[in-house]
Write a structure and sequence with these properties.
This protein has 2 helices and no strands. By secondary structure, the chain is mainly alpha-helical. The protein starts with a helix and ends in a 25-residue tail after the last helix. The C terminus is likely disordered.
């Protein structure tokens, strides 16, 4: 598989998943909050209620 083919495959998958969309960011924040709770922190414990997505996921920021 060439690098171009891999890039195209990743781009298609990101589009399918809606990466960077409001819904994607919201679900990401929900998952991260669940992780914090499972670790015993809770979102309020460290002052982070929202998580900022950056890099490949876009920089839409917190919801």
């Amino acid at each position: 598989m060439t690098e171009e083919e891999l890039d195209a495959m990743v781009e298609a998958e990101e589009k399918r998943l809606g990466v960077g969309s409001k819904e994607f960011i919201q679900r990401h924040n929900e998952i991260m909050e669940l992780i914090d709770r499972a670790r015993g922190k809770g979102a309020a414990a460290d002052g982070k209620a929202d998580y900022e997505c950056s890099g490949r996921y876009g920089s839409a920021g917190s919801v």
